[in-house]
Amino acid sequence: MLSKKLLCLSSAVAMTVATSALADTLTIATVNNGDMIRMQGLTDDFTKKTGHTVEWVTLEENVLRQRVTTDITTKGGAFDIMTIGMYETPIWGKNGWLVPLNDLSAEYNVGDILPAMSGGLSHDGTLFAAPFYGESSMIMYRTDLMKAAGLEMPDAPSWSFIAKAARAMTDRDKEINGVCLRGKAGWGEGGAFITAMSNSFGARWFDENWNAQFDTREWSDTLNFYVNMMNDSGPPGFSTNGFNENLSLFQQGKCGMWIDATVAASFVTNPKDSTVADKVGFALAPDNGMGVRSNWLWAWALAIPAGTQKEAAAKQFIEWATSTSYIELVASKEGWANVPPGARASLYENPNYKAVPFAQKTLDSILSADPNNSTVDPSPYVGIQFAAIPEFAGIATEVSQEFSAAYAGQQTVAEALAKAQALTNDAMEAAGYR
Amino acid sequence: MARKITNNRKIINTAAAWGIGLLIFFPILWTILTSFKTEATAIADPPVFLFFDWTMENYSVVQERSNYGRFLWNSIFIAGGSTILGIIVAIPAAWSMAFVPSKRTKDILLWMLSTKMLPAVGVLYPIYLLFIKFGLLDSVLGLTIVLMLINLPIIVWMLYTYFREIPGEILEASRMDGASLKSEILYVLTPMAVPGIASTLLLNFILAWNEAFWTLNLTAAKAAPLTAFIASYSSPEGLFYAKLSAASTMAIAPILVLGWFSQKQLVRGLTFGAVK
Amino acid sequence: MATQNSRSAARLMLAPAVILLLGWMLVPLTMTLWFSFRKYLPLRGGDQGWVGLDNYVRFVSSSSFWPSVQTTLIIVGGVLVITVVFGVLLALLLDQPMWGQGIVRILVIAPFFVMPTVSALVWKNIFMDPVNGLFAHLWKFFGATPIEWLSQASIQSIVMIVSWQWLPFATLILLTAVQSLDGDQLEASEMDGAKPLQRFGYIILPHLARAITIVVLIQTIFLLSIFAEIFVTTGGAFGTKTLTYLIFQRVLESQNIGLGSAGGIYAVILANIVAIFLMRIVGKNLDA
Known about the structure:
heterotrimer, A: 434 residues, alpha/beta, D-Maltodextrin-Binding Protein, domain 2, two-stranded antiparallel sheet, 10 strands, 14% strand, C: 288 residues, mainly alpha, 13 helices, 75% helix
């Protein structure tokens, strides 16, 4: 075993030496999500095609964010490619920190990228990051439990239906919780969920003069509705649950419904990991009759920091990883249900992919999300579950910490909102908005 | 007569000590056991203790995903390098404070310790900028220097307290015999202080091994040690207890084994002058 | 004993350590001090000029500041009390004759070798998870409702995790001190009819005083800057935001270097207050 490893190691060294004359070694920072881990495993295909080798820096999402942000703001140059999201890309692009991706090859076919994705990853019409996968959010529910409760899930349900169904499906003795939702502090975790949800209740983060809006009835309606529903039919400790915790619960059959990222659909329907793989149905994220649904829009994308010496090789990698042929490569190895979704229009026209049960609902959810028009009342910011301003991540993390404390019953909803209001206005003042 | 220990008492002592010892060790034991379970067994209710199908699957998955060897090597190099560098700088300093004390010796010592109280994150930006400037980013050398500086106060202090327990007359005698300062330190003092130096080495190796702020924030791919390895296994998608346990076991096993084998040396010198 | 010659040699030998540490302290500290007077927002074009004491005022007037100081003191104090009390008891127990003393000692010191990130991850997921954690299974087995550790008892949970990591250290140092106890003195007091509690209070505890202060000093230095344990478990929610964590939020999450630097300066001040306080106590012991 050891000697085999040594052999691999030495042959890898030999290969690097042999190709180093014309090949680069790319350092790529990425997040430890399943699709990226899979990409890591397929790197050999890239090396075979181009001769370039790749060094992966795989980190947990929070650590990754802090790591790449430090590096980009100080122009550290530690990475040749960074995995970033729809929130960071326009801000960094605007600051001139990313290499514009306006000269990708014709065969790459930029036009095939879903407009919602390329729009969110651009600044002033210039694409700064290529989507590796894109997502919205939707409802995943247990068809068997729904039937047992004597209910039928509409294609586009309302929040009141969700609350009713959640209470009907809950069976504490069997450890079945009607609905599992994110409550974990962090702007990308519970903060993202509650913000998207608040949109459908008519709430917004800021009015047109950048005043915080947490003192409005809409926000208190949102939070009270959430807290009441979760106390009646959510899992224990939901105030510390994020995407991964809820995914585990759902896979173990402990959730009746789960409203979260559309990419989760392939995990919950994968019989290898999920005990409920054949009993999952999908529906659009709920609304409240106000014309805005509670689904978000997000993409994990690959971007090249300005100033890298290896721009050409980095572009080659991006073209490889976000191309249709990469999708086909994954499909041939892991099946169509496991390809990175939500980035390219052609995927949803592919007959093989159309047969995947969640494909259409994913596309519908993505298409119904509009970052430029995310709130009922007008707002000054772009973004659905975030506001695309540099200060948002810091503020929203603190706000979501106050919310989580309210979910855990350590303070009332009113107290949490009052604190959120004060700290948001304070931070916006510090940043010079008010 | 009263001091005579009855067998009964010894039995009670043994039972109590073993009970508490196992309780303290249990989280580690459980993690190691979990690393040999499947993901489904890892969260089984009721939990299974020993009787499950042992599997190496988690280890092979972890090994396939990350180049454990490189992380391990970086950890060894950084922890070892910083400790040895630290000792080299600290021995003369500790010698001078222990054997030629001045009025300010104590102040200097306490000041040194106080530098350890600076919150690392507060100076992340300055240090990061300096690292870029000197091209030390993602280099083993840069991390070795930083960790040496971080642990230097502890090293100096440990050696100082240890040296002070060595009677000055012996050194003086060697000086009478015409030994130079260099040979005094190298051939007289150092051999006598071996237990103290050994435990200083060990303690600082452990501290450097476990340091998780600078090692994570100043590295990318080349110099990343095991703390970065772990950061890629915290909260991935789906069930992960077994894989997390495997990665955790791989990260702590080398230092645990080292610690256990050398615990006698560690304990002998780990007094910080607490015993008089 | 010290001649003029050896004194200057001593100074020379002290120099590298002092210069290195001085540099390590002064260079970043000066830069931090400089940043703290400036409006420095990396995501908004970097350094935007002098703002005087604005950052200092804003950092303290934030509603999170005083709670964070309080949390810091609670966590540090809590861990110190637990590790010292249990450390003394454990040291006394381990000093008793028993079978397998060496193995027990190995078991007891093991947590000290576990890196903080790992121990936080393991505790959070494998033990404290309210659904799949081992504690939850245990509670359910006894028919109780599992505790939601990290939200309902957040500070206690963190104190517990950190105490678990540092108890071995305290135990080891205290054990070496216990072992150096004068057996004759104990025996004599026993002859005089001193009760175990009296013996503990009048002989053992005074003997351990020095070791205890050392434990307190060293642990405080490390505990003031704990970070991974909070970052991994609660992410600063549920009242677990320490001063270090608050600075992390300002610097890295809000990307406000100026504000974070001002916080850093406050943390240095706090650390020095604690240090002076501690050194008053330890300083005496160092003379002894």
